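re: ur question from earlier - yeah i can do the single chain one, its not a big deal. heres the input i used so u can compare w yours
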Amino acid sequence: MAELPFYTLHAAVLETRGYIVGEANAPSGLHRYEGAGCWTHLGWRNVRAFGLAASPDDPRRLYLAAGNGVFRTNDGGTSWRVLTDWRITEVLDVAVDPHQPVCVYAATAHGVWRSEDRGDTWAEANDGLAPLPFTQSLTVDDRPDGPLVAGTEHGLYCSFDGGRQWSAVGSAGVPIRCVRQSKADLALWLAGAEDHGAWRSTDGGITWAPANVPSADQTFYAVALDPLDPLRMTAAGYRHGLYVSTDGGAAWTRRTMRTPEPIVLALAFDPAMPGRLWAGTAQGLLFTDDLGETWTAAGLAEAVVRALAFFPTPA
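and the output i got, formated as tokens:
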């Protein structure tokens, strides 16, 4: 069996443990997992950290989406720069084009912004989106000719020209919380919705339909697709446990995480540990090696873990 590449888990965190009015906050913002439940805080204390991305041509170049803008580090987290001005706030997600790493996209409460110079300058990219396009999630297709897909409060949209023009592609009127593409089957996409369960695309994000998850009126804040198994996917959200599919989304099984069920805000399969699933919750981080039958705490206790991502570890 070929040796798997080494990846490092990163988390966007709101740290609430031990807060006392009038005293300094515990370190919120970007954290890097060191193993055995230990984490290293990187950069500023961004109290409202929502999303993160790495540049595919340099894993030391990281981007953080935060309430007060987009941040970038070129050295793995030692030094940071604010990339945006007063026009761009409430940034909820950030994405980098895997084929043109100079192109960076920001999802905000006021729509999508695009940069063609690694975030140094920005332009609005909302043509074709519904008015007041509150946008929570952005994903760039790993295929060279694939779309940029946005999850907005009005539904799902895709763009084939880097956000210059958008088209509605499904779930009209359904607020979308998150959008993810399978790394094992690039035609397969999954989205979590507000009060409308999960939605699935099997044609590269072009058309979408409900994913047949039980309790279809639930809110799913997080979805994940296993990069090592094209048939395995999960969805979770507001206090209703974890839903698991092992057949590409045709059938789903509910797993109890604990009592009371935590609010799950992020999910990520481990690309270097087959079968391991990480869950960021409103009370810390958990992982499971048996698709939710049992769970292990992995630090950040009582913290709100808003986003999880695995990035290649720099040499």
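The chain has one domain: 7-312. not sure if urs matches, ping me
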